[in-house]
Amino acid sequence: MSTTTATEKTKRQAPAGERVADWADGRLGIYSLAKANMRKIFPDHWSFMLGEICLYSFIILILTGVYLTLFFHPSMNEVEYHGSYVPLQGVLMSEAYASTLDISFDVRGGLLIRQIHHWAALIFVAAMLVHMMRVFFTGAFRKPREVNWVFGFLLLVLGMFTGFTGYSLPDDLLSGTGVRFMQGAVLSMPVVGTYLSMFLFGGEFPGGDFVARFYSIHILLLPGIMLGLVVAHLILVFYHKHTQFAGPGKTNTNVVGMPLLPVYMAKAGGFFFLVFGLITIVAAIASINPIWALGPYRPDQVSTGAQPDWYMGFSEGLIRVMPGWEINFAGHTLVLGVFVPLMIFPLVLVAIAVYPFIESWVTGDKREHHLLDRPRNAPTRTAFGVAWLTWYFVLLVGGGNDLWATHFHLSINAITWFVRIAFFVGPVIAFIITKRICLGLQRRDAEKVLHGRESGVIKRLPHGEFVEVHAPLDQADLHKLTAHEQYAPAEIGPEVDENGVRRKVKRSEKLRAKLSKGYYGEGNQIPKPTAEEYKEITSGHGHH
Amino acid sequence: MSSQHNPEETLPSEQAAARGTVAQADDPFADPGLPAHKPRIQDIDERAAKRSERVVAFLFVLSMLATVAFIASFVAFPVDKSVFIWPIGHISILHVSLGVTLGLALFCIGAGAVHWARTLMSDVETADDRHPIEAAPEVKAKVLEDFAQGAAESGFGRRKLIRNTMFGALALVPLSGVVLLRDLGPLPEKKLRTTLWAKGKQLINMNTHQPLRPEDVAVGSLTFAMPEGLSEHDEDFQKEIAKAALMIVRIQPNEIKDPRELDWSHQGIVAFSKICTHVGCPISLYEQQTHHVLCPCHQSTFDLSDGARVIFGPAGHALPQLRIGVNAEGNLEALGDFEEPVGPAFWERG
Ligand code: HEM
Ligand code: FES
Fold first, then answer.
1. Which ligand is nearest the CA of A289, by number?
2. Which of A216, A399, A429, B123 has the most CB atoms around its CB within 10 Å?
């Protein structure tokens, strides 16, 4: 009896929350987990919110997507429409299309959720692309984060395909045209094209299966994989700890910021609601994908100015500007006009995905990097990134060539040729210009370190000359502007070993030395000021 | 890879600051360390803090009100009532009010939480140490040793027969999964080479659903037709129309440049597949002076007075022509199927 009263007494003493936590700790070990993480430090920088936007729009997509599954019928059975959208009454359409009309016109709030889902999809992919660019331009992909870079890249690609399968589901005229486009592209594949198309569509296009098949891909297969990748991505972010920019007190071996509980939790949690709220308001007032406007899909009907969702735009550009080459031989056709774009499509994406591995091979650097680069301090990388973006946007322009033509009264022919030339030349020009700008900015930083910043105060010297007074930087700024590392270009090393025997220099070694020179050789980075230079100049400063 | 060997001297000199070691006293660029915390007005002035508290609470209350308004809108507004809102235009009142109220309810929670964090929660920056991701050498040695022991105990390396047969079994078993996918669809066979068109099938006007007569085809307009016997209620209508869709124009016979085209026409009436040979969009725009048709998807342009050859755009070959004539009732009829596959090109097309 005395033992029960004793436990009752402790029960009364401990608050309810603690007792629940005790219970959970006894089973899940939450105290040890919380000890490591509850006050974990997160650095703050506006660009770190981009990843959060991706995460939150993904969550919004899942929430609204589950709601949509309650009303959407993934079936291509033909039905006659009798819902409340008058212009389409009596029209034959697939159940998929009819149920999307019902969601839009008969389910209260259904249209809102549909529009939130679609807007969130657009924002999701856009945020992933911008987030990836943030990681790229700051060098956050370097060791130990290469694997997480790959996870993120896979999420971007899967997000594009999830979006494509999603907007194909309503089986409306616009999306059906996009599916037809995809089927045409599949057909162009040598040897296997017709087989793949038959297997994908359960026979000839469009058949009666693809909505149901896209549905399970869209709501189960791809989101399932993505959810796994998102979790892995976040676990790695936690495990590696966040990167940070160099600054006073911020080093490669620490992470400076505010604790998870309460500040980061309140900010990040609050940010979820901000993103959700903004997307909801946009969905309320800006119509997206009004599937009722054009009617159900018919393979013999089409609308003008058909455009895919923006993230598919660059593939659209590829297919529009490629010349229609076809090679016929021995009873076969090589449909280069479609197959080449189909192959360049993944190539464009892979070009950026493999970059971190190329850079780490060139530098040969095996150390961990937790301090971010300012883009100007990695001119070659930055130039490559801008070149890639130029490539991407040139293709995006090509994808809308008819819209450009009508809006700006240009000829489609001119735009097509512009895109064809810019596809090859644009990235090169962008590379050169960006590198120059970066080097200029580096020079300016060096200048600032040595001579101080322009104060805006003009002083007249005794002999009549006007000069601007330069205010010396404080130590925090001096440190910030000189904290970046500079590599020396790699050498091939002696071609003759210690016994005087010529050693074979591998081609890869030569290539690496060449690249390294392009990255870090003379003229490809501005040597940062040394302490000696600084002291020499500042000691002379007093004479002014 | 030997080329991966990096002579240490190409790496930047390990910087004192970046390594976290104490800088020499005479380094002008040394890390001065974390700056002292600057208090915010709310940290010093309790009245300012109270004001912040009221703002946060106000936002949370606003969120509650918005949720109430959401529920009220859901109940009050009929689903089919639309209103004019400038500059959006006509829009469902239910949709807008649900969206705006829900959006506000969510946004205010977020704004409240962020304002709370920014003005009232401590903003003192602190530092956590990082630890190398790589395991210490002892840990690595222990793991390798454990692994070697486990591998040895399994006999995996020694009993090659077991190892090889296991690999074989694991390699084969997914084949069943691949085989199961076989019934996803039929084999292509000749399916992409044939359409519903056949000798004697009349051309049915897509709009009137009546057989087309030569006099129905006016100069300057594009007429669409499907084969006799096909109905929009047919189960495989979509699949059949995707191949059989036809467009018909009338061109002065002396304007037809291609002799075969003229031969396959009827008094200048020519019939071509409506499906673009690029990736399969239906063609919809006709320029009557030039007899050019344009595919709206990627702007391929075909010259209908010259065998429908491609004159612009990404399509790779001409639109297939259907040979037509007139039957005993005076209606237009097909004189056979298309001689080549319609729509996008494919490997077996030849
Ligand atoms: C993960 C990323 C996802 C993306 C990028 C995405 C994107 C899209 C898009 C663009 C649409 C077309 C909406 C329209 O305008 O009609 C759509 C439709 C749909 N999605 Fe998603 N979605 C995602 C996840 C999900 C999930 C997790 C589910 C369900 C569990 C889901 C269920 C649906 C359904 C049922 C539809 C068809 C309903 C309709 O179109 O009205 N989605 N999706
Ligand atoms: S489908 Fe006609 S131009 Fe591409």
1. 1
2. A399
| Whether A281 and B99 lie within 8 Å, measured CB to CB | yes
- Which of A119, A107, A118, A121 is closest to A70 using CA atoms? A107
pLDDT in tens, A316-325: 999 999 999 9
Q: Do B102 and A280 touch (CB under 8 A)?
A: yes
Where do the structural domains in chain A lie, given as residue ranges? 1-37, 50-305+343-369, 374-491+504-544
Q: Are residues B211 and B301 in the same domain?
A: yes
Assign residue B155 a region (left: φ > 0; alpha: ψ between -120 and 50; beta: otherwise): left
- The answer to whether residue B4 sits within a structural domain is no
> Tell me, which fold does domain A50-305+343-369 have in CATH?
Cytochrome Bc1 Complex; Chain C (1.20.810)
Count of CB contacts below 8 A, A vs B?
402
- Count of structural domains, chain B: 2
The whole-angstrom separation of Cα B80 and Cα B216 is 42
Q: Which residues of A touch B296 (CB under 8 A)?
A: 302-306, 402
| Window A:246-305, CB contacts with B under 8 Å | 246, 248-259, 262-263, 266-267, 269-281, 283-287, 297-305
Inside any domain, residue B262: yes
B345 Cβ below 6 A of ligand 2: no
Task: Find chain A residues with C-beta within 8 A of B79's C-beta.
Answer: 84, 105-108
**Is residue B180 situated within a structural domain?**
no
Q: What is the ipTM of this complex?
A: 0.92
Two tokens, residue B350? 């030849």
Is B147 contained in some domain? no
Listed range (A8-22, A300-314, B217-231, B315-329) with the worst mean pLDDT: A8-22
Q: Which of B127, B239, B241 sits opposite A249 (nearest CB)?
A: B127
The Å distance, Cα A156 to ligand 2 centre, comes to 27
Query: Which of 415-434 (A) contact B at CB < 8 A?
Result: none
Rounded to two decimals, the pTM is 0.93
Helix, strand, coil percent values for chain B (each to nearest 5):
40, 15, 45
Alpha-carbon separation of residue A239 from A136, A153, A264, B109, B130 (angstroms): 20, 19, 17, 29, 10
Can you tell me the distance from the alpha carbon of B61 to that of B108, in angstroms, rounded to the nearest whole number?
9
pLDDT single digits (tens) B177-219: 999 999 999 999 999 999 999 999 999 999 999 999 999 998 8
